[in-house]
Amino acid sequence: MLYRKTALRFAAPVAVLALSLTACGGGDDDADAKPKSAAAEASPSPSEAASGGELGTGESATGKVMEGDAEVTYDITAQKVDLGTEAEAQKLVQDPAEAKGMVLAVAHVKFTHKAGAALTDSSDANDETEIYADGQRGALLIGASDDAAGCEDPYDIEGWKQGESHVLCESYLIPANAKSVEVHWAEEDGEPYIWTFAGK
Questions:
Q1: How far apart are CA 146 and CA 152, in angstroms?
Q2: CA-CA distance, 51 to 37, in Å (whole number)?
Q3: Beta bridge partners of 74
Q4: Distance CA 71, CA 82 (A)
Q5: Are 199 and 179 in contact (CB under 8 A)?
Q6: Are strands 180-185 and 193-198 parallel, antiparallel or unpaired?
Q7: Which of 7, 12, 125, 155 is the most exposed place for a label (fewest CB within 10 A)?
Q8: What is the pLDDT of residue 51?
Q9: What pLDDT does residue 49 have?
Q10: What span, in angstroms and rounded, lies between the C-alpha atoms of 65 and 74?
């Protein structure tokens, strides 16, 4: 996480394309999948998932994040994904050819501090947010959503305490012709919660 914070703090004005081999259909977790017990498959309440899984629009999940030395519990809801154009995506990378056939996808995720100490540093809650298009992970764009409408900069949030909510955003390049777009969020080493939105 230290690498990511450093990269965000020193990102060039043009967003840096983080090349991600997993975006091209890298390793699949299916081989490592373990059978779930009946308890793990217990049905969650209508507004909150039990432990990873698919959620509907507006549904929230509860997850824990280590913030410095303290564990903080958040209520997490993926609100929407804004999709840009191919021309916009090509302006965000150093080599426009890398973004050919791609669009910028910005996930807006609302985090509400439910339990734990007030934060004394920037939050790591959004570090596990990823965007998938038609089942494939997109390519992370660092810094592209820093000034997007409705997105807060985690470095500007001071003393985040219980009861406060903030919308943090993550940006990825995804294929322009994607039919569905998924926002994934997981606790570290946990199963992801998944919200699905329509593509273009």
A1: 7
A2: 12
A3: 63, 113
A4: 31
A5: yes
A6: antiparallel
A7: 12
A8: 72
A9: 46
A10: 8
Name the token pair of 13: 């004005």
How deeply is 174 buried, as exposed, middle or buried, from its count of CB atoms within 10 A (0-12, 13-18, 19+)? buried
- Give 192's DSSP letter: P
What are 33-89's pLDDT values in tens digits? 444 433 334 444 444 545 789 999 899 999 999 998 999 999 999 999 999 999 999
pTM listed for this prediction: 0.76
pLDDT recorded at residue 82: 95
- Please provide the DSSP assignment of 40-84 as one string: TTPPPBTTB-SSSEEE-TT-BEEEEEEETTEEEEEEEEEEEEEE-
Beta bridge partners of 111: 76, 166
Q: How many other β-carbons are positioned within 10 Å of the β-carbon of residue 152? A: 18
Assigned token pair, 146: 């820093």
